[in-house]
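Trying the structure run again after the queue cleared.
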Amino acid sequence: MKKSTFLSTCAVLLAIMMLLGACSGSTGESGGKTEEPVESPGKETTEETSPEKEGDGSYKLGKEALEFTLYGNYDWYTMPEWGGDIATQWIKDEKKVNVVPVSSGGNAKNKMATMIVSGELPDVIWMERGADMEKLRAEGMLVPFDDYLEKYPNLKKWAGNDTIDMLRSPDGKLYQFPNWYTTQPNGNAGYVVNKKIYEDLGSPSLETVDDLYNYLKMVKEKYPDVTPLEVGQKASGIDVMVSAFAEDRPFMFNTALAVPSGDKFVSLFTDPVYRELIQFAGKLNREKLISQDTFTQKIEQVEQKVVSGKVAVFVASSPTELGSKGNNHLRAQDPDAGYIMIWPVHKEGLDRNKIFPGDYKQLGWNVSVITKSAKDPEAIFEFLDWLTGPEGQRLTMWGPEGLYWDGTDGDVPRFTEKFIEDITGRDELMGSLVNFQWAGNTVYVDNSKTAFESSLPIEKQNWETRWQSEITWKTQFNATEFVNLDPSGESDEGIISQRVLEIYEQARAQAILNTSSDEEVNAILDKAESDAQKAGYDKLLKYKTDRWQENVQKLGK
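Done. Tokens:
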């Protein structure tokens, strides 16, 4: 961002925050609240009929029309046309639900602030857990879900009480509907290996860090036009490799800028495991074993290399999508080509079964909240609860019955021959539905895929599902106790966090790209530690420690 643009944005945000403070007043009521319900953006002003309740006081989805607005609080998110595909058209026709999008316009922070000040909140906000959600809750803008949990049982059944309790706010109530929550391991972080190159080089051992280093040198010598180790944009794969240097060490502690030690968080910059990782990364860069433009390349460049087979090893937090695409492309040209995955590498002497390149959290990814602008919040909750159940998940993953699945065995869909043969059409449909998956049920989806794929011969199995079940799901760390550690951006700790993040990113790039020895790497990290402490790093670490220990208590550990 150019400096002038940044300053202009800051000025706008400052003005909005001043307005918000003026609207809050001394009564504790939320900014912009009026005596009459506020019309949500995109909602028609004609009189509507509320969905009809059953005799037990619950709503019945599909009996009456339900329309609500939904805002995705992300710069990147643009909701596709509701009804523009066969799945959401089916929901529109059969369940009488219409979802009206509210766009962020590519600037989610400004859009959210403007809606709060104006009082024109959408009915549903799809957003991250944490400080921003809690601000809305504290201002009295959100609807609690506690009265709905028994009436509509899917969330309680599939997420479980532990997950629900972790999602509760300080007032003890539940305001968040989780997305891709789980009660079993999931995740894709790990190592993808070019099968043709690997076999051509004699299929050497790839178990330890030394094995990997020696293999990359062999690749460089024999395949000069191939990237030995692809680490993605901004060297993100390097962070994944921290898992190789210590047991029970997923990369999430790098991005959290804090490392657990006993019952508190300590500095990342002084951590010996992190230093060993960055020293190794600097060595890989000096010997040209990783992409020399890794900090500047775009995702399209990474994809092109993987799909064309110009990568020997690809390490990333989620390499399976590109790995699958590359595998299908290469196998179409040569049945002996493609990609495989290997068990995560580890430093000599460590237990391979305690190496976790990625992590998973019971709470999943993000959440949906229902605002007090919603005319029928209970009906919206009932829809989300249906969406997270087996019928909703089958529909928003694989489309309506009769195309890629036909009937069920219990709750599990019976996939058709078309699911196996029409890979292009199936993947296009699934891709078109990704941005409607606001209430993903990981356990249901993963178990449905695995049950089906395990019945097929290996050559017909879905590449991603095979390696998930064989390797990646087995090598992800349960990080549920480390959720919701980030402070609000406007708080003292939030301002410190932003400054420490800047120090971290600058030091990391310099240590990898501009050093000729381990000593130079250590000097850069020493300077980063000093700068971070001057910025208030200890205060941030204490804040994260307190949030962590609150989670530990909630989990009863």
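The mean pLDDT is 89. Worth checking whether this holds up in the mutant runs.
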